[in-house]
Specification:
The chain has a seven-stranded mixed sheet, with helices on both faces. By secondary structure, it is of the alpha+beta class. The chain binds dioxothiomolybdenum(VI) ion. Dioxothiomolybdenum(VI) ion binds next to loops.
Length: 769
């Protein structure tokens, strides 16, 4: 077959191409610097002292022995840490903190591992020894970490960043009456345990005050005599952290700089500031030296958030032929004593299926645990485990194929908001998924499928995740050596943001990927979005494109105004930049000139363009309902003789708009599927009822899915651009792959074993029953 001639610039478009990480070489050679990799002269090490009770009061702290230990600079506690103020929520992502109480504010201990003192020493080892030598005397109360959840907290939503009250408790029709009269009913309660984020990179802070070397010009432009604070932090949201620290230390915001060059992942645990950040900063202030604090793996289970335990009653009413008439989703999740994190389990319930009568309610139960926080797919992931499990149970009751049941209940519009979906191709996901998996060969009877002496279970579930844009700013430079630079203060949390920005700039300017410098993760850069909600990519597209357009506009003006330029007699709007070369639109690319030549002729090192884009997230009156969709098909093998359960095959189909980098995109879905296997079969943070401690607080006892647990995973993207989100039509893909996975696995487990597990994770004991 003859090769089709494709115009060069088009052929070279990096959008939609498998693009290896541009930061990959830095990572594999160890040059990429993570928060704990920064070292400064005179730097000290801090190790927190953890409360060994979960409820009560510190009545005495004996620090005398610790203070005298070699290399120890100070032991800090309430009386000598200095002032740490509270921070207050502002508009957007401003002042967001899950644990609102600053460390050491009072003597009350509300959860196990709460920091009660801080040892600072010349070395990490000396600080650790000193922290261990601090003796605390407590007045103990019995902790409440009970797993049975009953709402005991005000159902009123406390002020959150975006007012989501209406969405949290949706209601339409008369769900109770419709359920009561429905010929087919499912009424089950599903439980998900507390789960702990375990990114391999530990939380870490390195804090410096009045550091002229890192503050650079920023020091000169500060607006008051207040000191400056620089923090190297493992953060998914440097600008929010900047604002929070400014409030906590009473500083003008511009006197605080937060830097996160690389992140060893976060999964949501690093979205909002935790108490170690302000403790490290306070210690550095008191001692006049840089202080580094690295949270231990054990502390990761105590003080830096987790996914809360949820208990969700789902009632589905349906006709005999499987048409939903009523959905009731009433959930309770646990919360910390003082804090108000909300796990929005009903996130997807109100729009996923067509149903005239619906009610979503929630409650919260106070427990002596550290504050929960978003964890990959917060709300929707536990919520869809419950809803999709109930749908699978309904399918069995009405003897309709679970895929067909969902097709029957596919809505035409978002019935919760009464508006159309911007782009919903869930039915096509089902079609492709059934084909790729070979679903038509499924025989529905429990235990009826076998292969190589193993019982097979086949299960499936749908998934969805919100899509929107956060506000974003970026700048793009074109330089006289033919390179480009793009700067944005968002972070790359391991998902590929460096690469996406390089692709975007390359697309607009024709500068090859290798010649695009990407600068991220610093509050001194244009304000970028948080790396959360799977929304960073979708958010930066319009800002980066606008910045590139503005840089190109400046270049056109220069090309037409520089004496001796080949385009001197032309108007700027007659010129095009393609493949890194400028030419007159009408004359075509034959007489093109590299943009670097034009800059050099004008004696310019560079031209810069700035761009910004507004949020769509939180829009109270959207015209379209914007979400990603998808489905998972799962095969498990069950070996009853030795009670061995394995996930043996997964096919996931994802409708997440245009996929800018399929290589990185697949990687996101695969990672989420692996996490889904962990959620379904292994992950569970256990709180000891006596001490209140998360007792499996290490990677030996907190089980996550490892290579041996991971089967072949097939990922397919539909690739329909959703231009409501941005002109490329890219939504996000970080979280959706985890949604629905646990329900798909438990339905496969039921198909193989006949056991319905409604409390995660699935345990061998459940299957022996
Ligand atoms: Mo994600 S839980 O918004 O980092």
């Amino acid at each position: 077959m003859p090769m089709t001639q494709v115009p060069e610039a088009k052929a070279a478009s990096p959008i939609g191409r498998n693009t290896p990480r541009v930061d990959g070489p830095l990572k594999v050679t160890g040059l990429a610097q993570y928060a704990s990799d920064f070292h400064f002269p005179g730097m000290l090490y801090a190790v927190p002292v953890e409360a060994t009770i979960a409820n009560g009061r510190v009545v005495k702290l004996d620090v005398a022995a610790a203070e005298k230990m070699p290399g120890v600079r100070a032991i800090f506690y309430r009386e000598n840490i200095g002032k740490i103020f509270r921070s207050v929520l502002g508009p957007g992502f401003e002042g967001v903190v899950d644990e609102r109480r600053p460390p050491f504010e009072d003597d009350v201990v509300r959860y196990y591992g709460q920091y009660i003192a801080l040892a600072v020493a010349d070395t990490f080892e000396a600080a650790k020894a000193a922290a261990d030598a601090v003796r605390a005397t407590y007045q103990r109360e019995k902790p409440n970490v009970a797993t049975e959840l009953k709402a005991d907290d005000e159902p009123e939503v406390v002020p959150t960043t975006f007012d989501m009250r209406e969405r949290l408790q949706s209601e339409r029709g008369d769900a109770e009456a419709a359920f009561a009269s429905a010929p087919v009913k499912v009424d089950q309660t599903y439980v998900t345990p507390a789960e702990t984020h375990n990114p391999i990179e530990l939380h870490a802070t390195t804090a410096l005050w009045d550091d002229s070397t890192t503050m650079g010009a920023r020091t000169d432009s500060r607006t008051s005599d207040a000191p400056t604070l620089t923090l190297y932090e493992a953060s998914q949201a440097v600008f929010n952290l900047q604002g929070v620290l400014a409030q906590m230390f009473g500083l003008p915001k511009e006197n605080v700089r937060v830097i996160t060059k690389f992140l060893g992942s976060g999964f949501g645990g690093k979205l909002w500031p935790w108490t170690h950040c302000s403790l490290a900063a306070a210690a550095a202030r008191q001692l006049g030296k840089p202080v580094k604090l690295v949270v231990s793996r054990k502390m990761m289970f105590q003080t830096v958030g987790h996914r809360p335990r949820t208990q969700q009653r789902v009632r589905l009413g349906a006709t005999d032929d499987g048409k939903l008439v009523s959905i009731q989703h009433d959930y309770v999740h646990h919360k910390a004593v003082l804090d108000h994190y909300h796990e929005d389990c009903g996130e997807a319930t109100a729009f996923l299926y067509s149903v005239p009568n619906l009610r979503v309610t929630f409650g919260r139960a106070k427990r002596n645990v550290g504050s929960p926080t978003p964890m990959r797919g917060p709300g929707a992931v536990p919520g869809l485990y419950a809803i999709e499990s109930a749908m699978n149970e309904l399918a069995d009751q009405v003897k309709i194929d679970p895929v067909q049941l969902r097709v029957l209940n596919e809505p035409k519009i978002d019935e919760s908001l009464g508006i159309p979906f911007s782009s919903r191709h869930l039915l096509e996901c089902f079609k492709l998924g059934t084909e790729k998996f070979g679903w038509s060969k499924r025989s529905p009877d429990v235990g009826s499928m076998r292969r190589d002496g193993l019982t097979l279970g086949w299960g499936m579930a749908g998934c969805t995740w919100a899509a929107a844009r956060f506000p974003a700013e970026a700048s793009v430079q074109l330089r006289d050596d033919g390179t480009a630079r793009v700067a944005c203060g968002t972070q790359d949390i391991g998902t590929g943001t460096y690469t996406i920005l390089a692709q975007l700039v390359s697309q607009k300017t024709g500068v090859p990927l290798a010649k695009v410098e990407v600068v991220l993760g610093d509050t001194s850069l244009p304000a970028g979005p948080i790396s959360g909600g799977s929304m960073a990519t979708g958010s930066v597209v319009p800002a980066v494109f606008a910045a590139a357009d503005n840089a190109i506009a400046s270049l056109r003006t220069i090309a037409t105004t520089t004496p001796g330029s080949p385009f001197e007699k032309r108007k700027p709007e007659e010129l095009l930049l393609e493949g890194g070369r400028v030419f007159v639109k009408e004359e075509g690319a034959d007489k093109s000139v590299p943009f670097a030549d034009l800059l050099r002729r004008a004696n310019l090192r560079l031209v810069t363009g700035s761009g910004e884009s507004e949020a769509t997230f939180g829009n109270p009156k959207p015209k379209f309902s914007t979400h990603s969709f998808g489905c998972h098909f799962v095969e498990v093998t069950w070996q009853a003789e030795i009670a061995r359960l394995r996930v043996s095959r997964v096919v996931s189909v994802i409708d997440a708009g245009r996929i800018l980098n399929p290589l990185a995109g697949r990687n996101q879905i695969e990672g989420a599927v692996v996490m889904g296997i962990g959620m379904a079969l292994f992950e569970h943070t256990h709180y000891d009822p006596q001490s209140g401690a998360p007792i499996n607080s290490n990677l030996a006892d907190y089980i996550v899915a490892v290579n041996a647990d991971v089967p072949p995973i097939e990922v397919h993207f539909l690739d329909y651009p959703d231009t409501e989100i941005n002109e490329l039509g890219a939504r996000g893909i970080g979280e959706i792959g985890l949604a629905g996975m646990a329900a798909a696995i438990t339905s496969a487990v039921h198909h193989a074993t006949g056991v319905r597990v409604r409390e995660l994770p699935v345990k061998i004991e459940d299957l022996l029953a």
